[in-house]
Amino acid sequence: MQSELTMASSDLRKTIDQWLEWDQCRKTRAEIEALDQAGDWKKLNELLLTRLAFGTAGLRGKMRAGFNGMNDLVIAQTAQGLSTYMAEQFSDNDRKIGGIVFGYDGRHNSKRFAELSANIFIRAGFKVYLYRRLVATPLVPYTIRHFNCLGGVMVTASHNPKDDNGYKVYWNNGAQIITPHDKNIQKTILSNLVPREGTWDTANLYEHELLMDPKEAIVDYVYKLRATVPQAVIDVNSQSNLRLVYSAMHGVGYPFINDTFAAIKLKPVIAVEEQRDADPEFPTVVFPNPEEGKSALELSIKKADSTSCTIILANDPDADRLALATKNTNTGKWKVYSGNEIGALLGWWAIHLYQQSNSEASLSNCYMLASTVSSKILKAFAQKHGFHFIETLTGFKWMGNESDELMKNGKTVLFAFEEAIGFMFSTNVLDKDGVSAACHLASMACYLEAKEKITFDEKLENIYKEYGFHYNISSYYFCYEPPVIKKIFEHLRNFKGEPKTYPFSILDGKYKIKHIRDLTNGVDTSQPNGKAILPVSASSQMITFTFENGLVITLRTSGTEPKIKYYAEMCAQPDQRDFDGLINTTNEMVSAIVHEFLQPNDNNLTPKAD
Asked: Among 78, 159, 185, 216, which residue has the fewest nearby CB atoms (within 10 Å)?
């Protein structure tokens, strides 16, 4: 009898034959055929016997052959499942009138995946809006609401490495899908795996009567963005000579930044030429992610130094995130702002613009949102100005859908953000939008220079003096053994061997815990009934500790990586002006929490590389 090393298992053999029967892409067929001929059953097991799962972020994975990769067949199966599910949710008339929108970025295969999907939806009787050009991710959710579409898909892997791609799905409200849509779509995909007749025939796609180019939505997007900037601010922009360096990170952002800056009378950006245009090879960066900090902004800093610019803006490749860096003219040093710091600046700006445009109106009907692991600075704004602050689970899918519900109830949503440099300024787009965020940061820079004679750094310090100092530390540990992760969190829920008992302090009582929120078990001791308001997820670990001195720290597992993450913030009161002392206290507490709660040495955790 042959061993598993010399022959495929019956399940694998069946799946290989199934793949070769269904797949019509020469490249991916050849990959599977070559592995089959070489007898590389281990690799074939990896590629074929595990399927790329569809979730609330849609699909994202490496472009390669097999059901565990992003390729023509997996995209076709996904589009078949999604179209079938949407056909069950909407009438024939809705499908022909509302339809669906598809956009794509500049990655390898992005246009192909969008065209395959459009073809499948047209054959299912949907009107399809398919962009003829590369677009920024925010344009898809914007276009859904502009044309009253039933949903939309953006083909992008955002800031992932060049070998990855993704399939990001939005519903008819213009927000990312949430449960139960994700689970129902996954089930429907698995029930519609066999490619339908005509799946691969895209030769006459652009001639079909149900296919439209939604290019007018781009013009309207620019118009609506301009409407969020008061005329007084546009006047300041027009009189300013301030220039900013901009990087598109080899992505799609530059044309949209160019058009929107012109619309609100900002001077054209000074582009980093090497990164200005879309390039699927991302030749100048290992990770095309401006969140990586200075390592991703080396060319931007070089350009800024050579042109005497002191401000850098950078989008990620699909332009839904935004990074900010500024140069201290006294020291010559560059500072890369965290997402929480940018959130504080833009949050203040949103209040300022609302008050400027609505001088007689109160903020009592207004809302701002942030994810639970992001800074609580918006909460401090809300307490002073009398508007409402809502905390959501991590991810803009929650903030987008929550904003939609608020709008339905007549509320005004001014701003939302997450610490991973994602910002939603106004409700033109119910998702993070790096283009509108760039416009508002640039306008704010012009305003601060002209009216307050200060820099972003000085403004941030003024914000902390007025609303309270907010200092953040976040990092993570790798843990490759799920039982160890479970042990760590169960230890915190049964502290010192006492069932259903959490820690009450750190450093032998020096810093006492005021509240505990455990979103795995649905516990929140700050609520009168002791139950959490936010949704509970038993499949992930997430505990937040709020200390009496204002420090808040969340410990959580990653949904996609073997990590235990922590997000800590000292939320001080306005009268606490010893910023250095607060920083030292935060550092001391976070070090103690890591040592006492995670016990990295005892649990063999691997720290994040510096």
From this structure: 216
